[in-house]
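User: Show me an example of a complex going from sequences to structure tokens.

Assistant: Sure. Here are the input components:
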Amino acid sequence: MAFDEMRGGGKGKRPREPYRAVNAWVEGQPGAELRRKSAHAEQMFRRTGITFAVYGAEEASERLIPFDIIPRIIGAPEWRRLAAGIEQRVRALNAFMYDIYHRQEILRAGRVPTDLVIQNAAFIPEMMGAEPPRGIYSHIMGIDIVRTGENEFFVLEDNTRTPSGVSYMLENRETMMHMCPDLFSTNRVAPVERYPEDLRATLESVAPANLDREPTIVVLTPGLHNAAYFEHSFLADRMGVELVEGQDLVVTGGRLMMKTTQGLQQVDVVYRRIDDDFLDPLVFNPTSVLGVPGLFDLYRAGRVTIVNAPGAGIADDKSIYSYVPEIIEFYTGRPPILQNVHTYNCRRADDLAYVLENMADLVVKEVHGSGGYGMLVGPTSTKAQVELFQAKVKADPGRYIAQPTLALSTCPVLTDEGLSPRHVDLRPFVLLGDRMRLTPGGLTRVALTKGSLVVNSSQGGGTKDTWVLEE
Amino acid sequence: MLGRTANDLFWMARYMERAENIARLLEVGHRLTLLPHEGGSAEWRSTLRSAGSEAGYLARHSVIDTRTVVDYMLLDRDNPSSVLSCLATARRNARAQRTAVTRDMWEALNSAWMEFPARAAAAINATALPDLFDWIRDRSALFRGALLNTILRNDTFWFTQLGTFLERVDNTARILDVKYYILLPENELVGGGVDSAQWAAILRSVSAHRSFRWVYRDAFKPWHIADFLMLNPQMPRSLRSSYGEIVLALQGLACAYDTTPPCLTMAEDTLGHLTVSNMTRILQSGLHDFLQNVIVGNNRLANEIATEYHFNG
């Protein structure tokens, strides 16, 4: 039986404290009214173009991520603990990356296996010895957190490359305030709207040293057909900076320039939303047309800042994940505040044996997979699917990890039959520059199919407005 | 601003203006075919010509009738100037520049694009075309209103203005050129019911059939229509007022960027020319040639602007 965040673990009718006001509000609404608001919300999303594109598809197939109108609510004490745990984790992971790309103390100390880092596709040897401003590699992170009980929170995944979803966090709040203003007068909901300003301040704080002017910031997108294009344009717009593609940039005279209506203009900070591999065809994938030839050399010379830094993916690799508690202890000298989900690394013989034996009860993930693809949820899979995965894991154990199937907490969603519990996770968004900036709340993803544990939008997941209540 | 952004804003505005103009042309063509002694196919042919779509149409269709022409000009995805294509292109440009396009503009444009196919298909089937034409004009006005009310008065604004008014010049000049023979003085002698319907149609195609009477109260002459649509500074779709807007936009850019580019000089020359011209002289040297020069010069100006402001990087 999963922990329900509105009803609590027991069968009692009384809703948990943070949900009391919302529960009363829901009960006071005629059923049809909630459905009307919900339909209206969907219309708003479609009109404003908050869609995600499907790869290789034309405009007709821009899709909406379904939005559920019942907010997900986190009480102030719960959030305090989460915030402390997130800050600890984010600082430790950045310290880890600095170390990995410099003296590699943690490898010398034998706390993380050397081959796991050095042979990792996300490790970029060209970054060795580079000095990113303020020593930060991952300035923009999303930490995926799941809950299984009143006090049980686990980190499921760290996203240290280019976490997406922050535009949904902001638009979900806009929509809720538009649809249900009365809820915000009866609940003290911490605002999230500062995020774009925080992002801009973070980016400015890591501009190359000794600039004698305000830094010029750009958001670098792969373009219109990228699934997260809406978010790229949204963030550029809210920060008031240019949204550029690789074709708009050129390296000349030792400077990064963008092609403007008035000729070339120098760029200082690139918030890139393209993968490492595509950044610079001279250093990485030579066929990339999304990046800028010469960009990486400029970066190494400190003439431009790339955010997040190339090679930041090493910290969110699924095979590194199980070492994050070690990493936290190593760099902070303290035990982790937020726990990891126990993880079996199939590269270890005893773990592999356990995984093969118990696969029907486990969640098996590809180390380099993302977006809910290439994974197996044992308990909801058929025997044939499990057997297929057993064969895959046996063939290449190093590519897989496994975790126990967690009873993810549930939150009520509005369905045709009224409210019904569905599993959720949480992705808070963290910024690290001159200081850490954590937006209270984040993106709640919800598995809209009854009983499903997969919350990814590419797999039929939806989102909810996420509230952190103030004291 | 990125050169690519300027390019997209310019074409977004052009295609929105074109969508409206195509709808107006169709509305007039449709009206004329409802008159007793009009030859439908000849009328549709000149509509296609005004829209610059005659060759494309004939490559695909052998008959010219209302249903086929309307379908081609409203909904055909392979016709780059169909209303549907115009809306889709305008939207693609806007979507590529969501940072420069305000939310109000985007919503006006996006909702038009979303609703149009179903509405158009229903209107063609129910032969409720006049309602559909009204609807397109409404949506275009909504977009234009959103733009004027919300856009920053910086280069964003000037580039959309340039797109709108260069397209408008092209459109007005084409309408006149296709029909220029009924505007000539000698035509007055052979005039009659047919021609007055044609004159009214030209005015209607630029929503000027009522304002015209206020400006030219006495002595109705067919070439007054040409004067109104070409040289009159009060008429918002005339060549002269459109060039007034173009010059303003280029001056805005010149001021913002602190330059005096050749395209500004070109536009000022054209405006000056339209200001000192009069119909008598134009008719003497040839209306058709004059209009052709305007169309060619307008294209040249568009190219010059694209070069000056690095539309292609």
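The lines above are the inputs; the final block is the predicted structure for all two components together. Chain A touches chain B at residues 46-49, 59, 224, 229-230, 233-234, 236-237, 242-245, 247-248, 258-263 (CB under 8 Å).
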